[in-house]
């Protein structure tokens, strides 16, 4: 008799587990690759709704007030994030304005609105309208919401301008700091968690997969539903039986897309570091500043801590992402099945640090909005800013295109002498283990 226990798939290695309720403080980790599957949460949909509403209110306040105020010879210039984006646009740097406007304003706002839209019905035990499309959108938006990066950018901008004039933080900065805390907390609420709440409320159905010879189990990245798919062609397109999202056993053409994006990012990385990201026009003359030049300037003025932060975020992080993804793709391409746990951790690190490289781009638009005194000093974005922002986007897309599960498939193939790149057939465990033991052992038995 088939078990009705819900299943969950590890997104990093494809192992299937039974889902069980956790106790406070517990988290379920994959016993194969070590990735965290899910954590205990004491919040119910009503609690998450309160957090989302609070974040939405704070978001409005943070953007209504200036994040910093600059005073020079009796002149005062205040800047909020919307004003910084608008100034950058008016200066003719539309690409930079669009990047920062989307990452700091539009996408976080859309994310919060969608969360409120979904959580309010869930708090009453009902299925939200357009639940599937809303959760698909939430999953897409999550990595592109860069409010924490903007907050750090404000601090760097204040330090950079401190030697030129009197600069003080504004009310908006406090709002963004609080918003960062709220968004970080809400970041633990994944699209799959929302579907799990809907399952518990009886608002959506739970499908129990039944495998046949030649099938394998795969989990939907949006709703978490595990279902049986033919394993003969792992990159063939399918649709989730529950949320109708596109579904593949493995991401199609992942290596080709990853390499293409990495090569494009590597090419743009050169002008991003050679061309000035910021231009300064003042009564003392005009000058252009590159990323590394800005780091050196901060170091020479005594702000070595901020210089180190900028160097790590704007120089080391992009380079690390490029090299790490290149190594991961090369390992899969040559069929290597060694060091899989280390490679999985490396991939997780690349995913985590992805957005922080946008720091310098946010710094530039804030400096442009604050140091905007006609006839005295004007700061504007340089050609390098657009190139650098594009590098950040391309490396993030490359990380999203890469599928680390192929490496684990190769390890399975070496053990079983099966066809390469074909995931093993997975069956629900007859006796699910405890939550303290990562909620189950992987099922690696192949269909006869």
From TrEMBL:
Location in or out of the cell: Cell inner membrane
Transmembrane portions of the chain: 48-68, 95-120, 140-159, 171-190, 259-278, 306-332, 353-373, 379-400
Keyword flag Transmembrane helix: yes
GO cellular component, as recorded: plasma membrane
Annotated InterPro entries: PqiA-like, PqiA-like_proteobact, PqiA-PqiB_transport
UniProt entry keywords in alphabetical sequence: Cell inner membrane, Cell membrane, Membrane, Transmembrane, Transmembrane helix
Keyword Transmembrane helix: yes
Domain of life the protein comes from: Bacteria
Any one Pfam family match given in the protein's UniProt record, by short name: PqiA
Mode of membrane association: Multi-pass membrane protein
NCBIfam families: pqiA_fam (TIGR00155)
Protein family per UniProt: Belongs to the PqiA family.
Protein's UniProt name: Paraquat-inducible membrane protein A
Gene source species: Bordetella genomosp. 11
């Amino acid at each position: 008799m088939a078990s009705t226990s819900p299943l969950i798939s590890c997104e990093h290695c494809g192992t299937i587990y039974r889902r069980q309720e956790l106790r406070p403080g517990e988290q379920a980790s994959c016993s194969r690759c070590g990735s965290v599957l899910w954590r205990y949460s004491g919040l119910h949909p009503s609690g998450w709704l309160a957090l989302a509403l609070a974040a939405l209110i704070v978001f409005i306040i943070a953007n209504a007030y200036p994040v910093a105020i600059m005073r020079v010879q009796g002149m005062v210039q205040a800047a909020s994030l919307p004003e910084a984006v608008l100034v950058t646009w008016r200066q003719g740097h539309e690409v930079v304005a669009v990047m920062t406007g989307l990452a700091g304003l539009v996408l976080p706002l859309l994310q919060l609105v969608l969360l409120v839209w979904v959580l309010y019905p869930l708090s009453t035990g009902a299925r939200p309208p357009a639940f599937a499309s809303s959760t698909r959108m939430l999953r897409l938006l999550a990595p592109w919401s860069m409010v924490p990066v903007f907050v750090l950018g404000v601090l760097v901008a204040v330090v950079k301008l401190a030697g030129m004039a009197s600069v003080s933080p504004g009310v908006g900065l406090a709002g963004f700091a609080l918003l960062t805390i709220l968004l970080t907390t809400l970041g633990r609420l994944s699209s799959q968690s929302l579907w799990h709440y809907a399952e518990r409320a009886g608002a959506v159905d739970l499908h129990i997969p039944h495998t046949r010879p030649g099938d394998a189990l795969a989990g939907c990245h949006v709703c978490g539903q595990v279902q049986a798919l033919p394993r003969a062609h792992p990159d063939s397109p399918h649709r989730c039986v529950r949320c109708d999202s596109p579904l593949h056993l493995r991401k199609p053409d992942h290596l080709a897309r990853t390499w293409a994006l990495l090569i494009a990012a590597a090419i743009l990385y050169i002008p991003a570091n050679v061309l000035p990201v910021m231009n300064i026009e003042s009564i003392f003359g005009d000058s252009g500043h590159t990323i590394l030049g800005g780091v050196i300037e901060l170091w020479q003025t005594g702000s070595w801590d901020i210089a180190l932060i900028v160097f790590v975020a704007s120089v080391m992080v992009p380079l690390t992402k490029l090299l790490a993804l290149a190594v991961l793709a090369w390992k899969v391409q040559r069929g290597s099945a060694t060091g899989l746990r280390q490679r999985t951790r490396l991939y997780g690190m690349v995913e985590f640090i992805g957005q922080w490289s946008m720091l310098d781009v946010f710094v530039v638009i804030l400096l442009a909005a604050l140091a905007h005194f006609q006839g005295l000093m004007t700061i504007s974005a340089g050609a390098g800013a657009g190139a650098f922002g594009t590098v950040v986007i391309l490396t993030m897309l490359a990380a999203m295109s890469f599928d680390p599960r192929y490496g684990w498939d190769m390890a399975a193939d070496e053990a079983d002498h099966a066809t390469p790149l074909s995931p093993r057939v997975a069956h629900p465990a007859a006796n699910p283990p405890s939550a303290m033991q990562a909620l189950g052992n992987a099922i690696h038995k192949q269909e006869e």
